[in-house]
Design a protein that fits this description.
- The protein has eight helices and three strands; from the N terminus they run H-H-H-H-H-H-E-H-E-E-H.
- 36% of the residues lie in helices and 12% in strands.
- The chain starts with a helix and ends with a helix.
């Protein structure tokens, strides 16, 4: 078994032990410009950067995670972001919220970024792929009013890359400006319950 095959097998074992989906792992990797979904099925290439960042979800470093004697961390040893995702599973790309979801875009964004720390940067495409359908097909993020006002700010720089078709893409970057507190999360959940 190669190093990559061992890593994929172990990462799937850890993910299933904590009852996390691939979409939830992508939420935890938000801001790191990495995509986990598809790594286990080998639809995405496993990179060295992914091998270094993935164990951090569980509060482990890469070397500890790769050891044959590595065990699942205790609940108290898990990072706060991971605990939040496990305890309060947000909507993910696997969900379908229909046309009504388009009215509550801000609520879904708040629930997707609630675990991020102040100063964390993420791109528009990263947040879009974590939102439920049809929001993940592309929506405009209005952070100047409503629930998103002041939560994060749009940076003056962007990430440039080529998409699957070879077209140049300019992806706006955002930065968490203030902590996403329980009051704001509660407001987002109440809006979705209506």
């Amino acid at each position: 078994m190669t190093i990559k095959e061992r890593f994929i097998a172990k990462s799937k074992k850890f993910r299933l032990y904590f009852q996390l989906t691939e979409d939830q792992i992508d939420l935890l990797l938000l801001g790191k410009n990495l995509v986990y979904k598809g790594v286990e099925s080998q639809h995405h290439i496993l990179t060295l950067e992914m091998m270094e960042k993935y164990p951090l979800i569980y509060g482990l470093d890469w070397h500890t995670f790769e050891e044959d004697t590595a065990t699942y961390p205790l609940w108290d040893e898990l990072p706060e972001a991971t605990k939040k995702i496990i305890l309060d599973t947000p909507y993910t790309a696997a969900d379908d919220v229909g046309k009504d979801g388009l009215k509550n875009t801000a609520s879904y964004i708040i629930l997707a970024i609630k675990h991020l720390n102040v100063g964390t940067q993420f791109s528009e495409s990263e947040i879009m792929r974590c939102l439920p359908y049809p929001l993940n097909k592309g929506v405009t993020i209005y952070q100047t009013s409503g629930l998103l006002k002041g939560a994060f700010k749009k940076l003056r720089r962007s990430r440039k890359f080529k998409d699957e078709k070879g077209n140049d893409v300019i992806d706006p970057l955002y930065q968490i400006h203030k902590p996403i507190d329980e009051h704001l999360i509660g407001k987002a959940k109440r809006k979705l319950e209506k």
